[in-house]
Design a protein that fits this description.
This protein has 107 residues and is α+β, with helices and mostly antiparallel strands. Helices cover 33% and strands 27% of the residues. A hairpin with a 6-residue loop joins strand 2 and strand 3. The longest helix is centred in the last third of the chain and has 10 residues. It is globular, with a radius of gyration of 15 Å. 14% of the residues are buried. This is Cyclase. It comes from Amycolatopsis taiwanensis.
């Protein structure tokens, strides 16, 4: 398991949130092994959102990225152009300093 990060400029945050969290779109993401773990508004770019998703596989994430479902959703959500970036990161880098029994502690 890894993560998929997306940075996208949108016309209106409220419009974006309304359509992004539509149950049908969430179901489509989940069918591709993507589970949203956070959505954020960029501090210096008030019309930019950053989405963080856990992903089951890089191949499934790429399939969703290229899907007609996502293309239609981007239009409904008020996306401006293509995302500023999509990062697919399937490999976890373990903390070499973590001591056994210190789960949840990153240092």
């Amino acid at each position: 398991m890894g993560v998929m990060l997306v940075k996208q400029r949108v016309v209106d945050i409220a419009r974006w949130a309304h359509w992004f969290w539509d149950p049908k779109l969430d179901a489509a993401r989940r069918e591709h092994g993507l589970v949203v773990t956070g959505t954020y508004r960029a501090v210096d770019e008030p019309h930019t959102v950053v989405v963080v998703m856990d992903m089951a596989s890089a191949d499934s994430a790429r399939a969703y990225e290229a899907s007609a479902t996502l293309a239609e959703a981007r239009e409904r959500c008020g996306a401006v152009g293509f995302p500023d970036g999509v990062w697919i990161a399937p490999t976890v880098i373990e903390n070499p300093h973590r001591r056994p029994g210190s789960e949840g502690s990153e240092g």
